[in-house]
Structures are given as C-alpha cells and as structure tokens.
Amino acid sequence: MAAVSDRSPGAPAAAAPGDNVDAGRAVVVITGAGGGVGAACAARFAAGGWRVAGVDMQPPADPNVVLALQTDVRVVAQCDVALATCVEQLGRVDALVNTAGVWTEGPAAETTEAEWDRVVDTNLKGTFFMIRAALPALITTGGCIVNLSSDAGIQGNRGAAVYCASKGGVSILTKALALELAADGVRVNALCPGDIDSPMLAGQARDFGGDDPAAYRARLLAGYPQGSRARFIRVEEVAELVWYLCQPHAAPITGANVSIDFGLSAGIA
Questions:
Q1: In degrees, to the nearest 5, what angle opens at C-alpha 141 toward C-alphas 46 and 82?
Q2: 3-class state of residue 185 by DSSP
Q3: 198: number of CA atoms within 13 Å, CB side?
Q4: For the chain, give me the number of helices (H) and strands (E)?
Q5: DSSP secondary structure string, 52-121?
Q6: Is the residue at 217 inside a domain?
C-alpha cells in the first residue's frame, strides 16, 4: 500500500509510462465540468497550476480543461474509459472531484422507477464508479477525492425523498471510503451545500416552480436564517472549498461532510 505522499501538488514526481513533458504538474479529474460548480472548480484548479480533465455528458468546451471527455457517469464502462484515458494522456491523477448531479422532487407515491434510476444512478452510482476507476492512480499519487453531496444528504427535505436518498448515500459513502482508503494515503471528503446559484438551480425552479420560477426561488431563500440578507451560494465559493480540501494543508481532513449552506442545516431557525 502506498504511503501518504509528502510532496506538494504540482511538484515533480517520478516518471511513469504515458507521462508527457508536462507530467510533473498535478492532475484533477472533475465530473460535471461542463457548467455550474464543475466549471468553477475547473477554473480554480487551472488558476492553481493544475491540469484539468473535464468529464461531462458533452465534452466541456472550456479553456481551463486540457482534456475533455464525453462520459455518462451512469455507465460503469464509460467511467473506466474516462480514467484510463486520463492516465494515458496526462500520466497521473492527483484528485477526483465528483460534481455531476441532477435534482428531482415530488411526492414519493408518484415517483417512477425511471426517475429513481436517473437520479440515483447519476448522483450515487456515478460517484462510486468514478472513484473505483480512479483508485489505482490516486493510490499511486497519495491523492484525494471530493464528492458533492448536499444539505439534503445530511437532513431530510420534504418532497425530495429520492434526491435525499441519493445524496445521503454520497455522504455515508464518503465516510466509509475515507476509512477504507486511509492506509493507502487517499483522503475522501464531501461538501454538503445548500442552494447554489447555478444552472441546476435555474432548471429546478423552471421544472418545479409551476408558472412562477421566481416565487420558487424566493421560497427557498425564505428557509435561510439570514432573513432579508439571504442569498444563494456562489459556484466560486464552493470551488474555493473544493480547492482547499485538495491541498497539503488539508491533510488531517478526511471522512468529513462539510456543510456550506449559510446555516441551513444547523437546526431550526
């Protein structure tokens, strides 16, 4: 088993088969990199000097992404191909950031099997099998994993049972894998954000807000303890915390579900 790496991200490492001239720089693989939090993470890691492999249903057209991969994370074989391609072309993987996800809501009695499969396969199955595919490379580098869970992954949301099930799975999966992989020098953490001002939230308000998406968004904000000061989280704020968790000074942090939600999950306001 690999020991915990004491090198700083971006520092040269021993050459490996498939390394190219740029292989000394750290590599992050980001799912859902085509927009929202994933794109913000790509920008943050690129600004920090990392090479970014972006994974999405459509190859991300983003100057921050040096390797764009069309991947449906619900399909295990595609997860395996994506990680194999990253190692082949970039020589290493130092971090995996799983931001790919979808939302659903509605009465449990009306939930179809197809909707269950769409949400759970994207949010939970895809996260697990991207991790499984990345493990050999991450163990080699002593890397880290950051999963995007949700405030709905640590507390129930009325009318969103399927989404809660998928994100609750991500939260406890994170803890289980952190224990399993600790001796290999691989850290695993999850972020549990509240509502993020992103294309996902816009789609959520459009699809579930009836004839008034603005009122839907206002109802979400009404649940925050800040009152008239309430606002949605910015994608850049989430990306900054993801970045921090992948740095050497975050070495003691593993198995954590880190809330970033303006206190939404802190208790009854």
A1: 65
A2: coil
A3: 27
A4: 8, 9
A5: EEEEESS----TT-SEEEE--TTSHHHHHHHHHHHHHHHS---EEEE-------S-GGG--HHHHHHHHI
A6: no
Q: Does pTM surpass 0.85?
A: yes
Question: What range defines the domain where residue 188 resides?
Answer: 27-196+233-259
163 is catalytic: yes
Could you give the C-alpha distances from 252 to 14, 72, 213, 246, in angstroms and in order? Answer: 25, 33, 42, 11
Between CA 87 and CA 95, with CA 92 as vertex, the angle to 5 degrees is 110
Number of domains, the chain: 1
Q: Is 152 inside a domain boundary? A: yes
pLDDT digits (tens, 9 = 90+) for 88-135: 999 999 999 999 999 999 999 999 999 999 999 999 999 999 999 999
- Is 255 a member of any domain? yes
209, part of any domain: no
| CATH number of the structural domain spanning residue 37 | 3.40.50.720
Q: Tell how far CA 20 is from the center of its chain.
A: 27
Given 163, 216, 224, 244, the catalytic residue: 163
